[in-house]
Amino acid sequence: MKVTESLIREHIPLVRRMARALAARLPHSVDVEDLVAAGLMGLSQAIERFDPRKANSFVSFARFRIRGAMMDELRAEDWVPKKVRHQVNRLEQLLFRKDREGARKELGLTQKKFQELESHASTLRAMGQDTTVVLEDERTSVIENLPDTHDDPFAEVCRHSLEAAVREALRQLPEKEAAVLRLSYFEELNLKEIGQRLGISESRVCQLRGRALAHVKETLAHPLDLAA
């Protein structure tokens, strides 16, 4: 019990960082402390289930448990009504064909209501990215989560091959999608800041980021295509 309590105290700062990073992508109505509480439950589960023989790093293992618990908390709240979810889906469809103002007019919303809808879209998009492996929260990439391979020459070769594949996948992205990933994960800007920098809405930023991450994951799933 003392070991568990000690590990929890040691990793509380990690939970708080992850909660703040997630909350920055969500509406102000989402309580950071609720995310922290859920994250601590995830941390406790990680401590109970961690097996050093199967996982290289406790922190890497714990991150997935913590983030998963936070996402479960967001889903359990289910604060987005079905009508709003329908409007969000409609909004994302319109943004493929129209600019932000054109989408607002077709939806028949005031500026205030449209901004609220964009906020909901940002949250739903964030909740839909909890399984993302590449460039996940805390600016930790899939490469950084690979196990130590210094004693395994074959594994070392595989590691370098994956690093090269990730870089090539990023180079293949369309310019705006690549810009969104760069601003989000390397310059650490939030959705609003990225939107201001690129002159697009927060929901459009979410859409581009989701598409970019999906492209990278798909590319990594078919590495032979990189050599074509």
**What is the correct CATH architecture of the largest domain?**
Up-down Bundle
How many β strands by DSSP? 0
Strand count, sense and barrel status of the largest sheet are:
none
* Helical percentage: 55-70%
Low-confidence stretches: 129-159
CATH class of the largest domain: Mainly Alpha
Beta-strand content: under 5%
String of helices and strands: HHHHHHHHHH
Radius of gyration: 19 Å
CATH topology of the largest domain: Butyryl-CoA Dehydrogenase, subunit A, domain 3
Mean pLDDT equals 74
The first-to-last residue Cα distance is 55 Å
Q: Find the structural class using helix and strand composition.
A: mainly alpha
Describe the protein in words.
- By secondary structure, this protein is mainly α.
- The protein folds into three domains: 1-79, Rna Polymerase Sigma Factor, Chain: A (Orthogonal Bundle); 80-128; 134-228, PhyR, sigma-like (SL) domain (Butyryl-CoA Dehydrogenase, subunit A, domain 3, Up-down Bundle), CATH 1.20.140.160.
- It is built from ten helices and no strands.
- Helix 8 (175-186) packs across helix 10.
- The longest helix is centred in the first third of the chain and has 22 residues, at 2-23.
- It is globular.
- The N and C termini lie far apart (55 Å).
- The model is unreliable at 129-159 (pLDDT under 50).
